[in-house]
Structure formats: C-alpha cells, structure tokens
Design a protein that fits this description.
Elements (H helix, E strand, L loop, with lengths): L3 H30 L12 E10 L14 E15 L3 E28 L3 E10 L6 E10 L6 E18 L1 E13 L5 E14 L11 E14 L4 E13 L10 E13 L1
Antiparallel strand pairs: 1-2, 1-11, 2-3, 3-4, 3-6, 3-7, 5-6, 7-8, 8-9, 9-10, 10-11
Amino acid sequence: MLSIRSTFQQPFSLIRLSLMLIVLTTLTVAASSQVPDANPFFARKNTFSVFGAYSNDSSHILLGNAENRKLLDIGAAYGRRLLVNRVVNWQFNGEILPVALESDILGQQSITQTQPTSKTSGPFPIGQVLSCAIVTTPYSYTVPNPTSGGTTTYSGYFTQSCSGREWTIGEAISPVGMQWNFRPRHALQPFFIGHGGYMYTTRPIPLANAGSFNFTFDLGAGIELYRSRNKSVRAEYRYHHISNHETAYENPGIDNGVFQVTYSFGR
C-alpha cells in the first residue's frame, strides 16, 4: 500500500525529469547553433559569368594615342578558385567576347588655295583619323607655265577635321586572367582583376593602315556583391588597351576606360 508521501513524490519526480529533458534539449540546440559553417567563405570553386562592358571615349591614358574611340562588349567568363583564406580569394579568370564592337572617328579634308587665285575645295572624306583636332598643313609647289614660258606657283593649305564615325564588328578572347577578391568571408568584396588576350575585327582599327588583328590587356578594380553563396553581381572599372604590337604599318594603340557589369553563378 502506497503511503501519502510516495503518492506525492511520483508527480514531482516526473516534473523534475521533464525539466531536465527541456534543459538538455535547449543546451543541445544552443551547442549545435554554435558549430561553425562548413563553408564560411563567399567563394565559389567554379564560376560562370555573363557581362556587358562599355566605354564612351578613349585618350592617351598610358600607351594608346587614338582618341574618341568607343567600345561595346558582350561576353562570358569562366573562373576557377586557386586559393582562398581569410584575406583573399585568388581565382583564374578567362573571358570570351563574341561581340566586341569598336567605333572610330572619320575625317574630312578641305583644300584652300591662296595663290595664284583664291578658292576652296571640299570637304572630302578621308576615312579614319587619329583625333578630332583640326590640323592645318600648308603646301606650295611650282609648275611650268607653257603660256608665259615661265612658272606658276600654287600655294595654300589643307584643313583636316572629323565628321561622323563608324562601328567595326569584332571578336575577342582573353584566355589568361587573374582575379583577387578580398574579405571573402563577407558578402560585399572589393577585388582586382586583369587579363591578356587578342581581338580580331572585320577591318583595320583604329586607322586604315593599322591591323585587323590586335593584342589586348586590361587591369581593373571593383566591387562584388554576393546575393547568395552561389550567385553574385560585379561592378568594375578597367583600363583597357588595344594595339597590334608593331605587326602593321601603323600602331597608334587605343586606351579606354571601360565600365563593366557582370552576373556570376556557380559552386
């Protein structure tokens, strides 16, 4: 026969046991929530990207001399992680540009004769020119005059200026490139990037005596924002250079400041 004390002890034992189970469950959940993430980095092993890039002007930034050239690129890229730690995510990066458009300025020339009579001819189209700066070139020559038996001197000047532009279709590939993302534990990461490659166009650029085959390289920096572990967007600015490395009669080179937006995904 149970005593009154035993009758009251059983419910209290059950309550103590329940409380102990609740405490153990809480501690277990708290401990598991403190276990570090197996992948604490925003750093994909393989990255695939699509991008668009544009430059509205060119000038002598570093190596190029052709002015007022525009670039419009649409392409894709592949990246492979080489090294990642708390400081940097170092990646191989290669790009292919099935659409690489370049726009040259076109020139015109007028002829102003001052001797023996005054008259102006033109303007006449002269194709691609190096810049839009107005260039005046004097001329003077003497020819025999069969009427008088003496000579006649002709003199005046040529005036060159720009008039309109034309776009040239091309393709490009940059098979060698590197990208360095910093702060890889954070979703917002600054980065540096650089490539080397070549570009082929359907006609010579940036001048008629330059080549259709050109070498390219770029160096840039920007910000990459990870929307998730696998997806991100990048915005960057690059110094971009095009030249034929003296493989054609003329090699003025093109320096552009290019703005690029990239969408990336992968694992």
